[in-house]
Amino acid sequence: MKITKLLVISLIIMGMAFLSVNYFTVEKEIAYKQIPEKKEKKKKEEKSLEDRRRFAEERLKHEIKFQKNPNTGRIPETEKLKEIEISKSIRQKNSAKSSTTTYISRGPSNLGGRTRSLVIDVSDPTSNTIISGGVSGGVFRTTDGGLSWTKVSANNEIHNVTSIAQDPRDGFQNIWYYSTGEFSGNSARLGGSPYLGQGIWQSTDGGITWAQLPSTASEQTSDDSPFDFIHKLEVHPATGDLYAATRGAIRRYDGTVWTTELDASRDTFSDVIITSTGKVFAGLAGNSGDTFEGVWESATGIGSWSRIAGNGTPSNWNSTGRLVLAVAPSNENRLYAMYVTSGGFYEVDLWQFEDDVDTWTNRSIKLPDEPGGDSPGNDPIAVQGGYDLVMAVKPDNENFVVIGGTNAYKIEDIVTETTFTRIGGYRDNTGYGLYDLGVNGDRHHPDIHALVFDPQNPDILFTGTDGGVHKTIDVNVETVAWVNLNNNYQTYQYYHVAIDPDPSSNIVIGGAQDNGTTAGGFSSSPDLTTMVTVFGGDGVAVGVSRDDACVPFFEGSQNGNIYRDCPDGLTITPDGSNSQFVTYFYLDPSSNNALYYAGRTDLYKTTQSTTVTPSTWEELGTLASGGGVLNEWIVRFGTTWGTYNPSSSYLLIGGDTGSVLRLDDPQNATSLTNAVDITPAAVTRAFPTVVTGLAIHPTNPDIVMLTYSNYGITNIFITTNATAATPTWEIAERNLDAFSIRSAAIAEVEGETIYFVGTARGLYSSADPINEDWSIEAPDQIGYALISSLAYRPDDNKLLVGTHGNGMYIGTVNTTLSVEEFNTTDTEIIAYPVPATNELNIVLENTFIEGDLVYKIFDLNGREIKNGILSEEKKVNLQNLNSGLYVLQLQSNARTKSITFIKR
């Protein structure tokens, strides 16, 4: 029977097999939920203000290293522009072959990433409509107060959202704007050629759909536009003019033309805020001798600006960095200004201005410094040089002020009370556990970027932090409690991910930037996207082992730390070792007893991963001793699949100046001296030439795919004789020749080999990349997210995709489909009609065993919607399902298959 591709895609696109993990006890899961707090405190204990500044720089260096052209030392703007253009053309083009892999989210759906802005829709009297922006994840919208979020920015663009604004005028409140380009703090920002924004985007339908304002167009390739970095947006309540606080300037857009209202002519922070009557206040970051530094006001926002504060005026005003403003809604003559300073006890100063009498009052003495000793980066108030600096005033009380830095604080009466008190961020100044106080309070998160009061209820406060979106229903209580609103607010930034090697398990784990290590898929988890934090600090490499009945997790944190959580719970960092910032290690997915650790230039190994201690690792020498370039750091490993065999198993080692070594029989090796240098001859061994993928075929160890991340070089190679003394490599870039390749995997399904590469702009696949172009995977789900990590499980063809900004996804790899036709006898399940309405008819073919067929229906976010036993008529009732795309899983006698279907 032959059917068209359209029908095939509708009927038999393979979905996920969601299997139970009954072996994983509830007791252990409870233990995991209890452990994170202790680990987090332990690992963040030394994270002083200087540490945090240094870590931010190290993240930046890490990302620069992955992108610089080794021949020029720069990130080529032309290459990045070409990468953008090609990625769009690939998405639009119909390839000769297309993957049938269906991806679903693996979350985390309950944890959020860095959020710089959120706005409550003033046209919604319930305040349930909110629009929020993830710096690497895009724009999200909720209409139920944060119980669920929908991503509304397009997946075919990358949006590092920094500010959101709504037109406040009656009749125009359907108009929204968001800005892009994070000036400070973005892990993807690049020195010399920053990870720029894409200007300003507008919605005219209440934030549901968005289009770029052409006058702000920027393609993230060169730092040449005033709209590459935008700090704040505001809309004038009388004219509807849009104000943008850009680098060192305030610009106004009347719908036709941009006018520069203030310009400090330098690279710095700025801020703008507008009263309900149309008076505009602006703030420009401090700098000694700068005539534009300070606070400005204009009665209309169109010219006629006057400076109302600056260094030395008023006396003791000493701004040396970022400055933010807040107006009291109940008395708009009251303005607050907070800025980074170098001249006082605190990292910031706080001032209060009475506009009607032109008087400033210094309130800095009231800034928080909690008793019991200082806690670097935590107490007294810390703002990380202005990275996290925000302020708001309670709508019904001009004296009630909330401020944010690393932590969130409130003062209910700034005139009479002595000091601010902590209400979020870290729990207290005795450590670095997350704030979880108050009655039934969820965990809050440090690094505060947005503080927003509910316009309908001034007692409700929302926050946007490095941990997403939270709210408190009563900011007045002595101990404020928070509610986590990260419900499908998928914005996590992963460096590395791993999947449980047991095919009966749903467990996944990932190390995320500044958000520690998260894991999910436990048997007691409510769904596949809910995760728990199992380690703190900056997340790094990860691993899940079946080498012990307790199922050890291997996790770590920045600058070398590696931890094994069971059976003993131990930091196992090799004695005397050093590591890169994003600590890298590799647990052999087929032989979990073997663990390899990258100690910069030195390789450490153990064949007793479950019992290794810091002193029992074996040091095998440096990469240079095996033929690599001197002082080359180890950045990637890969091992052969299947049962370990001393005569055929090998380890691949990749460096940051391009070298690739093969170490045969690695579990018995005592030195790198006998490692074989198999680096392709076409590789220029210059720093940085970073190996990001060493993917070995699941059944044929001679087939290897090698990838590099840097621009301006050849990035994808394939060999079919990897075990030879001198393997022959072929270039396999084809239509990805301009791309930064960040990860790689090779799958084999029904005798067909399928290659996957994760890039700086999406996930791509090809069954024959030597001769056929690459096709984009999951363009409407994963989109153009940076694919930082791929983890493959051959036993059931699961591919776990880790993104930097869009969380995790997982798919079951299937064979490719011809554009023209597909033979349905190759499948084991067919479902019809397409689309379905009230019921779905199931046809079983070939070897799928009949019997008590258990069925489950999931949405694409991994939530189980329905389950039951398939009737003898093999029909599934769909009457209670909403319209959309779903995954149907059938299981019989331990055999599981899944397909997608459409409900009309």
**Within the largest sheet, what's the order of strands?**
3-58-57-56
Helical percent range? under 10%
Radius of gyration: 28 Å
- How is the CATH topology of the domain at 494-812 named? Methylamine Dehydrogenase, Chain H
- Which shape, going by the Cα principal axes? globular
Question: What structural category do the secondary elements indicate?
Answer: mainly beta
Oligomer: single chain
CATH superfamily annotation of the domain at 494-812: YVTN repeat-like/Quinoprotein amine dehydrogenase
* Number of helical segments with 4 or more residues: 4
CATH architecture field of the domain at 494-812: 7 Propeller
Extended strand count: 67
Low-confidence stretches: 1-47, 94-98, 186-195, 817-827
Query: What's the rounded overall pLDDT mean?
Result: 87
Sheet of most strands? 4 strands, antiparallel
Gap from first CA to last CA? 26 Å
- Beta percentage is 35-45%
